[in-house]
Amino acid sequence: xxxxxxxxxxxxxxxxxxxxLKKLDLTLNVGESVALIGGSGxxxxxxxxxxxxxxxxxxxxxxxNGERSKPPFEGFLSQIGMLFQGGALFDSLPVWKNxxxxxxxxxxxxxxxxxxxxxxxxxxxxxxxxxxADLYPAELSGGMQKRAGLARAIVDNPKILFFDEPxxxxxxxxxxxxxxxxxxxxxxxxxxxxxxxxxxxxxxxIADKVNFLKGGYIAWSGTETEFENITEGTIYHFVKGLxxxxxxxx
Amino acid sequence: xxxxxxxxASIGRGTLHILEEVGNLTFFIISTIRNLFKRPFYFKEFLRxxxxxxxxxxxxxxxxxxxxxxxxxxxxxxxxxxxxxESAVPAIVSIGMVRELGPVLCGLMIAGRVGSAIxxxxxxxxxxxxxxxxVTLSTNPNQYLVxxxxxAATLVLPVLTGVGDILGIMGGFxxxxxxxxxxxxxxxxxxxxxxxxxxxxxxxxKGAFFGxxxxxxxxxxxxxSGMGARGVGKATTQxxxxxxxxxxxxxxxxxxxxx
Lengths: 250, 259
Known about the structure:
The complex is a heterodimer of chains A (about 250) and B (about 260).
Chain A (H helix, E strand, L loop, with lengths): L5 E10 L2 E11 L4 E5 L6 H8 L7 E6 L2 E3 L4 H4 L2 E4 L11 H5 L1 H5 L6 H14 L16 H12 L6 E5 L7 H17 L3 E6 L2 H7 L2 E6 L2 E7 H5 L4 H8 L10
Parallel strand pairs in A: 3-8, 3-9, 6-7, 7-8
Antiparallel strand pairs in A: 1-2, 1-4, 4-5, 9-10
Helix pairs in contact in A: 5-6, 6-7, 7-8
Chain B lengths: L1 H35 L6 H11 L4 H23 L8 H39 L2 H7 L4 H38 L5 H10 L3 H27 L4 H31 L1
């Protein structure tokens, strides 16, 4: 088996007295579509931000292609695409410049005209017409912003994609559409992906493998089929949206 | 006894917090100065900052300087009449504006108008994950957001100071000639006669220094902004308060160095 693309080894991270991650181990192999699920405040987004080098872990190691890495992961970041929870589009730029941001930084490879053409193609790919290209992010709805954020994430066809709560804040139909679109794009690009979510419908649609984060570490891990057939334990309650008898409400 | 301990502990916590802030700010300033000479330089962002900081501040600076110059002329005339020194009005207005009031007022007005806007913009970007998005797009937020603003403010403030100096002297001239019965020829002659190159240069250097302070503090407070609307609001207030204090304090130090 080939070397894992990303490995988190015994990662711990605290914010003051709040110990969010406790010796977290997580592996992402090439070509896998992995979901990281868990309740609110369990550290899913923190784990993702540690992978991206946005947070420094208190202890433990991040291995990229088998090598221990320290932030900023510049070489690695140039190969990835990331969709943020709220889209995170730059307010001061029109939509097409947001989408083409990466391309516009590398003028040797892409002229402004080429960059705009690619941006419009990607907007088309995520179901937004070229008529939104000159609008500003504030003029788009939440769902459209998410789609534009997705277009930005795939603008240079990256082989590694990260999605942070891609369906949060969307109605069920739009959420299902975005999930389906993400799955299509991951398959189209033969990409490796990590999705952080607590939307079970989205996870079932996107992921091949599911990791359940609880208490600062992976409490359950399995394939999407195993995940579908789970019948007991905390994860069962989590997936079914049932009260967990083992959990004390804080 | 426990009351004494908790009192001492709160002093200790406060001291540690201040030291931490000073350390963070020092590192931020050092990395900003270092990045000023690094590539890439985002020229479009720089031009946008020049227009926003320079061009759009002209009305505020102009009006402030004009009225301050006029008020200064009235005050000096009224005070000077107590020891028959009314004729010193043009010289004192011009020296006072060029050496002190021009750069300081310009710095303070820009701190209120631009420092707060920079902190609010960057703070909002932080809250909405736009700063993290920049990193994932292989762009250094310091290089993209801080350097263009700091470079623009440092270069534009001397120009605004120069405009403020001229309009302040004009304000004095208008009051002097229209209200205090100075002849226009005599007023202008005296206003320029006692002005030295060092006065003008020191004022412009102060302007550049204050521009650096305003933009750096705006960016620093934006980056350190807490989450939510309250966090951004607090960052904005801090940016204006810190910039203003630093402008007043550094003005004293710079005056001590120059004269």
